[in-house]
Amino acid sequence: MPDFAPSITRLIDELKHLPGIGQKTAQRLAFYLLRTDREQALALADAIREAKEKIRECSVCNNITDTDPCFFCTSATRNKKTICVVEEAPNISAVEKTREYNGMYHVLGGALSPLQGRGPEQLKIKSLIERLKGGTVEEIIIATNPTAEGEATAVYLSKLIKPLGVRVTRIAMGIPVGSDLEYADEVTMMKAMEGRREL
Amino acid sequence: MPLHETEAIVLQSYPLGEADRLVSFLSRSMGRVRGVAAGARRPKSRFGSTLERMSYVRIWFFERETRELVRINQCELIESFVDVFKDYAAGVALAVMAEVTEAVLPDREAGDPSFRLLLLSAQAIKRHMEIDLPLAYFALWTVRLGGWLGSFERCARCNKQLAGIPAYASRAVSGVFCGNCRGTGMKAISPDALNAGVKMLADRLDKIEASNIPKTALRELSRYSLDLIEHQIERKLVSREMLETAV
Fold first, then answer.
1. Which residues 117-146 in chain A show a CB within 8 A of chain B?
2. Interface-testing mutation among A18, A97, A185, with chain B (most B C-beta atoms within 10 A)
3. What angle do CA B214, B216, B218 make, to 5 degrees?
4. Where do the H-state alpha helices sit in A17-70?
């Protein structure tokens, strides 16, 4: 005899597909949804359906958007001479939070990772190179993650882009604000020393 | 809940949950272990860059009898390989080594020779930024340590000396065969590759001069060894495809 009614079992199975959700958490979420108001539960289902139907990739920068081209690519106030290259679309919001950057973006869709079968062909590098051919862009800021994969991607991109006469910069790496030098490891400290600037 | 302390090489790490990392590492004293590093993806994480791929570290972790994953408590960097990844081909070679190690070694089985082999090969790539010799050496010795390698000097069937005569091999059968004993589907191995193989099995990697061995022989040897490894693990190595385009 099954533990739950088929519809609950289906809900649990679907929730288990979400990252970080196991059997127990899926059960807890399923029973929470069953206990809540009908409107609240259906609002969640509607939000998922609407997002899946409306959200797509921007044809210019590969950001996730509900209008194509996206807000950043169509904005008249943004500086079109600079493109910030990020690994994934959620990284854009981290840069935007600073309110310091007013340029364009380009989402690569990941970083070079041979262990995950992700080489240059799997990343959206060709479309980035295409964007540079117009001659409008003067600087590319590479804001890939400060990991081995992110560094490999940054160096790979700079080798491709520099011959096109575009300035290539990399976001700074080193000691996080509010931390203690005593606890910094050698690589982090070395990157911080390499990226030091004159006051 | 005993605390372990050991030297280790980080093979792979995957994002886990909100800010954690699932880390697979090859430890000197306990073999391949998987564990969780809580909060490792946060900017102010105490792990810093120590859990990057191929980092040679001293690691402290807790083990619980009922759990397969250990809890990584602390990690100190002994040697970093982050800068090696700036060279795409070198990065791919390190990725192949990490994937092979992860695929061929069983969980929690101490294997000091495999640990030393991985470390020595990675250090050779870092030192010279040249991948053909270290990769061929690593792949060949992995096959040897796995017990899947036959003699390079004599035919595996008739025991005839192979020096200077055409030799043949297949991924499905260990050992190398002479022209008379070759089976269907066996590929030819050049005398240069066989000689290089004999030299590598007899010497330490840092004692072998890369310029004395033709690159084609080293690549042939790598291909042969990786074929044998793929046959043994019964799957293709994901990173190997990148290697073909990177070199």
1. 117, 119, 146
2. A185
3. 75
4. 23-35, 38-54
Is B22 an interface residue toward A (CB < 8 Å)? no
Rounded Cα distance, A154 and A150, in Å: 6
| B34-67 residue pLDDT tens | 999 999 998 888 898 899 999 999 999 998 888 8
Fold of B84-246: de novo design (two linked rop proteins) (1.20.1440)
Residue ranges of domains in chain B? 3-79, 84-246
Q: A4-58: per-residue pLDDT in tens?
A: 899 999 999 999 999 878 899 999 999 999 999 999 999 999 999 999 999 999 9
In this prediction the pTM is 0.85
pLDDT band of B172, cuts 50, 70, 90: confident
Contact B62, B1 (CB under 8 A): yes
Q: What is the DSSP string of A116-160?
A: GTB-GGGSTTHHHHHHHTTS---EEEE---SSHHHHHHHHHHHHH
The shares of helix, strand and coil residues in chain A, as percent rounded to the nearest 5, are 45, 15, 40
Q: Are strands B56-62 and A79-86 parallel, antiparallel or unpaired?
A: unpaired
> CB-CB: which of A112, A117, A187 is closest to B238?
A117
The residue type of A90 is: P
Model confidence pLDDT, tens digit, residues B102-151: 999 998 888 899 999 999 999 999 998 889 999 999 999 999 999 888 88
Tokens of A94: 């981290």
Rg (CA), chain A: 22
Residues 44-83 of A with CB under 8 A from B: none
Contact present, B158 and B181 (Cβ < 8 Å): yes
Return the closest-CA partner of residue B195 out of B214, B211, B182, B181.
B214
Q: Compute how many other C-beta atoms are within 10 angstroms of the C-beta atom of residue A84.
A: 23
Going along chain A from its start, the domains and CATH numbers come out as 7-54 (1.10.8.420), 71-194 (3.40.1360.10)
Of the options 3.40.630.30, 2.40.50.140, 3.40.50.170, 2.50.20.10, the CATH number for the domain spanning B3-79: 2.40.50.140
